[in-house]
Amino acid sequence: MATVPLLQHSLSVAVFNDGFKRSDFGPMGVSRSRRSSRSYAAGPRGPCIRCQSTSTDEPKTKRNLLDNASNLLTNLLSGGSLGSMPIAEGAVTDLFGKPLFFSLYDWFLEHGAVYKLAFGPKAFVVVSDPIVARHILRENAFSYDKGVLADILEPIMGKGLIPADLDTWKQRRRVIAPGFHSLYLEAMTEVFTKCSEKTIQKLEKLSEGTNEHGKGKIELDLEAEFSNLALDIIGLGVFNYDFGSVTKESPVIKAVYGTLFEAEHRSTFYIPYWKVPLASWIVPRQRKFQKDLKVINDCLDGLIKNAKETRQETDVEKLQQRDYLSLKDASLLRFLVDMRGVDVDDRQLRDDLMTMLIAGHETTAAVLTWAVFLLAQNPSKMRKAQVEIDSVLGQKRPTFESLKKLEYIRLIVVETLRLYPQPPLLIRRALKSDRLPGGYRGDKNGYAIPAGTDIFISVYNLHRSPYFWDRPSDFEPERFLTQRKSEGVEGWAGFDPSRSPGALYPNEIVSDFAFLPFGGGPRKCVGDQFALMESTVALAMLLQKFDVELKGSADSVELVTGATIHTKNGLWCNIRKRSDQPQI
Ligand code: HEM
User: Fold this and answer.
1) What is the ipTM of this complex?
2) Quick check: 130 pLDDT over 80?
3) Which residues hold heme (predicted)?
4) 2 Cβ partners below 8 Å, 6+ apart?
5) Looking at ligand 1, which residue's alpha carbon is closest to its atom 3?
């Protein structure tokens, strides 16, 4: 699992902004004298943040000379203020103190939902408002590109969808998005269950081994298990390659993890060290990265060659008639090659596959990890989930149809994504000058921004905004059934399921961009339904057979971030075979 020393912290404090009722945050009023403000643990109800500068019981954090000088310089370099947009002077030293998205939350509470952050050598506009997010992601989407994110990912994903320039993106999105059609998703449900079954069998075997002395209880890092599971699923789903990582290790798996590690590392660094001339030959880590990349590329090239050699021409109508469930290879690669693969060069296809491998692996593993983490602290919700699973599935595996009935499990998955969005920030750069709307609380004239402005849309802030969510830091899957118009927010229409009829999972449309776990607009995640269904199946199958509790306290689970939010040392759990499962 990728980690960066500067961004590894143990959060062990629940902190409050004075604007909030303390009861809103549950029993977390632990005084700072007992806990350090510089460490970050994930529990017990997920990280709660206090705005340092508005707190009354704590003196305002003093900025040192370095911070002041850097802010002065940043403001000069970045052209000073952006109209009436509030400016948060981020302390450079904060970069070294905690994950950036925590600091962005502090400043959101202090400065509002659109502010300019003068930070070190750069300035960013930080957005935590649904109207402004909607403007950037949907209404004026093509005035923005992925900016610094594309710089980071391009050496790994080439012209794959995430870093792709606009022209390439337009062509490839049109080809790839239809690949996630409903027949494919139905066929994938089989893949999800088969792969999850292997994980369950592994856990069962391990727990049998402990029956005599340990009474069927095993201690396991579930994050690592979810990571293997998600890798197997993405391999089969995207290019019909069985990594088999739940049960074995191979050079390809090692190379995939090496590459993911590097992708993660790069996404936490602001300096493109990998662009230093000759770095890929001289620096041992970079040499290893190039070697890993070659192993995966060779593997992908082989799969593409095979798919092209066995290509069957088809069209949409024929596709409708094909019995996807009986296909040996229902993968996305098969679809791409059969449907339209002739004209696409192998390099582009390889970039597409690599993008989906990386985009779809760690994200899903993180959702499962945090779902278990949250459930383990809420045994009554775990029980409620198991009651639903028992009544819908009994002893059977989930199917495409039964997913529709597993409502509570689906809500657990989305509530987990609300509290732990993957990634916590979306990155954009303005290609031309634009006027951002003021949002719900900002200047009603909005804010003019020049071309080249770098933007962070803080999904984390949106998802934990006290203006849109009741008790924003609580784990409450039920909230999606009840939360409608939020009090006190003029103009926000709250959740309205009729905006997205038939959707199995709440989304950015239903919530009018207050909830956007998969982004929104044209560059929204193509794999959203794949990932949601995969997580629902895996979670349901785990809870069907096992009771799970954390091995230590929630506070001891340290949190780190890169592209995703994950644990520092794994999610160590005690897992015990359920004894109360109905035998139907
Ligand atoms: C829980 C799991 C997942 C989460 C939370 C997630 C989240 C996201 C988000 C937030 C974006 C938008 C990024 C932006 O606007 O800058 C995105 C884009 C993307 N995701 Fe996912 N994703 C997940 C799983 C997957 C899976 C399983 C796949 C493929 C099989 C996938 C493929 C992609 C691709 C290709 C894009 C780029 C879309 C484009 O620019 O057109 N993701 N994802």
Assistant:
1) 0.99
2) yes
3) 525
4) 260, 261, 262, 263, 264, 265, 562
5) 363
